Request: fold
Amino acid sequence: MGRRAVSGLLPGVAMVLLLLLQSTQSVYIQYQGFRVQLESMKKLRELEAQWAPSPRLQTQTLLPIVCHHPALPQDLQPVCASQEASSIFKTLRTIANDDCELCVNVACTGCL
Reply:
């Protein structure tokens, strides 16, 4: 009975280890004290392409429009609190679209 319990646990333990390993292999972009995942930047690109905010919202805010999107990734939300949010997002987009996935850019970390 003990062997069955142990062999039943192995697939669950293997799954947990795979999830942990996957999360440790994320590529991060570091810029001006902000650390965001490359995947978050890809999600930002998708949000910007899909979302058409009201013209009233666009004229009423100094923040980048995407800061008002409810699905903005959590690691990007602190950028919205910065007075330089627009320029920071612009630079993060440039880094993410450049060579980040290839781990060539110095601002990217977590590459294998």
